[in-house]
Design brief:
Elements lengths: L1 E3 L2 E3 L1 H10 L8 H8 L3 E5 L4 E3 L7 E16 L2 E8 L4 E2 L13 E14 H7 L6 H17 L11 E5 L3 H29 L5 H25 L2 E5 L2 E8 L3 E8 L3 E7 L2 H6 L1 E8 L2 E9 L1 H34 L31 H6 L6 E4 L2 E5 L2 H24 L1 H7 L2 H27 L2 E4 L3 E7 L5 E7 L3 E7 L2 H7 L1 E8 L2 E9 L1 H47 L13
Antiparallel strand pairs: 1-2, 3-8, 4-8, 5-6, 5-7, 5-8, 9-10, 10-11, 11-12, 13-14, 14-15, 16-17, 17-18, 18-19, 19-20, 21-22, 22-23
Helix pairs in contact: 1-2, 5-6, 8-14, 10-12
């Protein structure tokens, strides 16, 4: 047993805590026994600083009892970004790096911590197979989670693992813009020196090629930085964005995970990256091109099992609480201290809410084909449909401008310059209205997936609106097809959703296979929600049966001998 002040913790309790921790849970019994003997027990009062921002990194801590608040320094002061529960650990960066602490840790309520010093860890680290790789993943994840805040995270949700794709994926994507830029630059030089010397064609091409290559390269870097894998205490999520164009987030509650696998290609073996495949009840989440894939897969599996145990514990507590309430018994939870609510690391500036103007409404989400807002996924038809509707007025506008500017003198001779400009303005305004109408018509054809419905919305500018919807739980089948060569080349098609005797169609949507997967995921979430509702009803019903039985039994025992609980004689 370990003693610190008035605290008494049994050796087996420390081993059980280490065995439940995703960082050490894969270790064998001998390693856990040795490791448990190296931890020291520290007790902190409410509000006491465990370590401060900028202090030396000397130890890692695990929460045995109580809660710990982690805070980062922002312009407005210290901001809470994570609240730790019993079983969580922090300060792990001390075991690998000598950098000063980049956040502070403060106890919330009376807190009992297990402390592992750097010297003790170094003495045993060679025997802790796989721990250093996991430590590296977790350290990078915590630092990244303090820099980037996701608005869709719940207040009680803590980020455990957060990572981007392997940097080699970025370099693979950079090859094409760089080669294209070099090729255009060579063509420009050849135009200036050999093919068309003395003419401006080479300079024009160079003026387009250099900024275009720079912009393309920057866009590629932004696109790579926008893809994340996030594992929290509630769910696993894969966030994939095409910069300024496409937003996608696939997620699954940890309770729905069925298996975690790893797929590595020959190139992946060469550059040390792999795909982590998470199988869930509602589909597959493929985490693509991740460095340290084996450690990440192991951490996902460990947090998944931990979540299942916690869910079982919470369900048992919920059942006990309901029974206590129905039997009018006093109820006291093991949790004597409630954790502080989590606040976002980046809080947007508060502003007065006002209705958007016409232009803000028209050009919001200007070219995005998929985006999420208020829990709903919205799709638009592919750009090909927009180009198909607007190419004629655009071409006519170009021909008109070309004709007027090439024969401007003749127009001025026939008409005055004022008349010519007025007529030109009127014609251009008509063509502009034509293009604007087609854009608004394209923009207002939307397909939505909410938490409980699929919606097909067709709206004509200044005209009629047609809205068709169906509950997700009533969807019988989902199919998609890409239509024709253009559909295959530009990756768009139609998704068919069968609901009873009717069929909803998401026409000409980008990446129809992903749309199908999104619907499947939302269906799974909805069915899980309904299942949980039924579970709660069953829990209420069973608890009522047990409570009724207990009351009848109590009444029966309280009656004199020879009488039933309903007062009838036994004679």
């Amino acid at each position: 047993m370990f003693y610190t002040c008035d605290m008494l913790i049994e050796y087996r309790e420390i081993i059980e805590l280490l065995n439940r921790a995703p960082l050490f849970g894969h270790l064998g019994e001998p390693e856990l026994n040795r490791l448990a003997g190296l931890f020291q027990i520290n007790v902190y009062r409410d509000g006491e600083v465990i370590f401060a921002l900028g202090s030396a990194s000397e130890a890692m801590f695990m929460v045995n009892e109580g809660h710990v608040s982690l805070l980062v320094r922002e312009a407005g002061g210290d901001v809470l970004f994570e609240t730790l529960q019993p079983g969580d650990f922090f300060g792990e960066e001390a075991l690998l790096y000598d950098d000063p602490r980049y956040y502070s840790a403060v106890s919330s309520g009376k807190t009992v911590l297990l402390m592992l010093s750097v010297d003790h860890y170094l003495a045993i680290k060679d025997d802790l197979f796989g721990v250093e790789e996991k430590l590296d993943v977790l350290i990078r994840s915590r630092r990244l989670s303090t820099e980037i805040a996701f608005p869709w995270l719940r207040e009680d949700e803590n980020v455990h693992v957060m990572t981007r794709r392997h940097p080699i994926y970025l370099w693979f994507k950079m090859v094409f813009p760089i080669l294209t830029g070099v090729l255009l630059l060579l063509v420009s030089i050849l135009l200036l020196t050999a093919w068309a010397p003395g003419k401006p064609f080479g300079w024009i091409l160079m003026t387009i090629a250099i900024p275009g290559t720079i912009f393309w390269s920057i866009w590629t870097v932004i696109d790579w930085r926008n893809d994340y894998f996030v594992l929290t205490n509630k769910r696993a999520a894969w966030i994939e964005k095409v910069a300024f164009i496409y937003d996608s987030r696939k997620e699954a509650p940890l309770s729905t995970i069925m298996s975690v696998g790893l797929e590595r290609s020959r190139i992946g073996s060469l550059f040390d990256f792999a795909d982590v495949v998470v199988q869930t009840y509602v589909g597959t989440i493929r985490l693509k091109t991740l460095a340290q894939g084996e450690s990440i897969a192991s951490l996902i599996e460990a947090y998944w099992h931990t979540s299942n145990k916690e869910t079982q514990k919470q369900e048992s507590q919920a059942m006990s609480q309901i029974l206590h309430e129905k039997l009018n018994f006093p109820w006291s939870s093991d949790e004597d201290t409630q954790p502080l609510k989590k606040k976002p690391v980046r809080r947007p500036a508060q502003s007065t809410v006002k209705e958007p103007g016409f232009l803000a409404w028209l050009f919001s989400d200007f070219i995005r084909l998929r985006y999420e807002q208020d829990g709903a996924i919205t799709y638009r038809k592919h750009w090909f449909l927009l180009i198909k509707r607007t190419w004629l007025p655009i071409v006519l506008t170009g021909l008109l401008l070309f004709g007027i500017f090439t024969a401007f003198d003749r127009f001025v001779e026939l008409f005055s310059i004022t008349t010519t400009l007025v007529v030109l303005f009127i014609i251009l305004f008509i063509f502009f209205l034509w293009v604007l109408y087609q854009y608004a018509d394209w923009r207002d054809d939307k397909f939505k997936i909410t938490k409980d419905q699929v919606i097909d919305l067709d709206r004509k500018p200044l005209g009629k609106i047609r809205r068709r919807s169906a509950p997700l739980e009533n969807v019988l089948s989902i199919e998609y097809e890409r239509l024709g060569l253009l559909g295959v080349l530009f990756n768009f098609g139609t998704v068919y959703i069968t609901v009873g005797n009717t069929q909803l169609t998401f026409d000409h949507v980008y990446n129809p296979s992903e749309v199908q997967q999104d619907i499947f995921y939302r269906m799974g979430e909805r069915l899980e929600e309904l299942r949980q509702f039924e579970v709660e009803k069953d829990r209420e019903r069973v608890s009522e049966w047990i409570a009724s039985y207990h009351r009848n039994l109590t009444n029966l025992r309280s009656k004199p001998d020879g009488q039933f609980h309903n007062g009838q004689s036994n004679k």
